[in-house]
Amino acid sequence: MGTNGKRASKGTVDASQSYPGRSAIPAWLLLPAGVALLFLIVPFIGMFSQVQWSALGELLTGEAARDAIWLSLRTTITATLISLLLGVPLAHVLAQTNSKQSRHQVLGRVLRVLITLPMVIPPVVAGLALLITFGRRGLIGSYLHVMGIEIGFTTTAVVLAQVFVSMPFLVVSLEGALRTRGLDLEEAAQNLGASKSRVFIEITLPLTLPAIASGTALTFARALGEFGATITFAGSLQGVTRTLPLEIYLQREIDTPTALALATVLLFVAALVIAITGLMASVTNSRMNGHSTRRGDETDELSKLEVVCELKELDALESEWARADEGVLVDAVVKERGVQVATALKRGFMTALVGPNGSGKSTTIELIAGNLQQTSGTVELRLNSDRPTIVWLEQRSLLFPHMSVLDNVAFGPRTRGASRQSARERALRELEAVGCLEFKDRLPGQLSGGQAQRVAIARALAVNPDLILLDEPFAALDFEVAWMLRLILRKRIREAGATAVMVTHDLTDAAFMSDQIVVLEDGRVSESGFTSTVLRRPTSDFLISLTGANRVLTGSGTAVIRPENLSLLPADEPESSLSGGLGVVGGGHQVLGGVVQQLAITPSGEIAVVRLDSGEQIAVTVNPYNRDQMHAGNRVRLLVDDRAYEVPATV
Q1: For residues 176 and 405, what is the distance between their CA atoms, to the nearest angstrom?
Q2: Dist CA 452 CA 403 (whole Å)
Q3: Which of 29, 38, 463, 583 has its CA at 20 to 30 Å from residue 249's CA atom?
């Protein structure tokens, strides 16, 4: 059956309703939106229909018209520049005081109300306030008058009136953009060693250019159209204070064609400025957020990268770890978060902080970074220098979107005094080490997630860090990409000889990357030690669960049994013929009886969930030797081998 004008048949999907590129706007919104658009456009159409276009040039050549046009342009440009010089810093201060981390939010709210007032009060009230303040007998004007400075009814008064009513548009729009964007990139720059002034000039300002451009357009347009405050505070003196809106108001009664011509000029200039600044903002956004049209297969890219890691026998590595000095000592309490951490991390090795959500992992790494002040106790860094270099890597790469890949990596060395040439040479070496040299001229928006994370690794290591903090750096990446990045990061950190601390929920990250594991539960350290030793015989509840081991209650504590520690006992095999084993499971027996509940596929293979006679559930690895008996409902007997162990009840 044809589809034109017909309902889609049952079982099919109407493309007009499912295609992701279709608009999500409800159809009923189009009517009020159209009415609003017509209401805003039709008056301009009506005005333009009455303009004498053929005589436009002649109407604008009159002395009064020329004076008004040039006076408006001069004062408006001056007012806009003053608003930029004063408003941009004010917007940043306001955004900082209104941030969630600020202790001055009440002050920020009060400031925002005061700054917004000139936008909402009648312009004549604004002019009256300025006159009372800067007039000859005003609060400030009286002192200026004594010094021979007159402001009221001068061109200066016009500029002040325009600044007063228009600057809030810039401040409010820019402050909103700053709060929405956050300060993560600024913090990343500071972590690389940049001063606050350098961060403001090289990071904050370039990133806020689109918002500044939009705010500038609003400021210019508002200053150009200012009328009430100007006539109240500055008067209407031709060539001195009579701006374009005032001239239009006067000509409206005596010469309507000239008034319409002047209004056309005002609208044209305002529209032109808005269009230009809008285009600038669009180009800047496109440049920073653009995407390459051809990226290739990242897995293939990484597979071509030769990553040779130093392999050591575990016994030798554990001995080396045990002899190493303590590099990071944490013995601190953060009362408001219920965290009390006491641990020592080895210098020159990587430590993984693991634990359930809310256990204190993020708090611990923030204490080490110095971003959080402890209620009591100490955090001591015994690293390679008195003022160690600390860098932070997380699952977001936090590359500076307005800088090329090469400039991103060179940023850290430059902030630490290296020349531009030296910094770029170091950046090239680091990019080559992570297989990203071919991307050096790209912008971050043209990189995939894995490529961006490799560049972030290069940027972090380019500053020769003493301490590297990693906050789940691979959580947002594909499985194959994450594996290659683990190899790259482990190799580069070992080559750098840096101390590293990693927060992770991933057992693979902890097992493969770290030399030491610290387990946090309920804000306390519940287990700590050399990685392979801890993972082989975990004692904390979290790590036992994370490694997939079974916990079986005994009279004296908990028996920890891995799925591979269990073997299926043949149905005709008597228990008395067996010897050895744990000797404590199931009330002193080495054999567990139970019923298979279900089978499940896990990352480590297929398992069977067995409910023991004691009521507990355990996981058993399914293999070719027991598959025939591992069916839901079957009763089985399980032999526990000697690798199972007990955890005392006090642990």
Answers
A1: 29
A2: 13
A3: 38
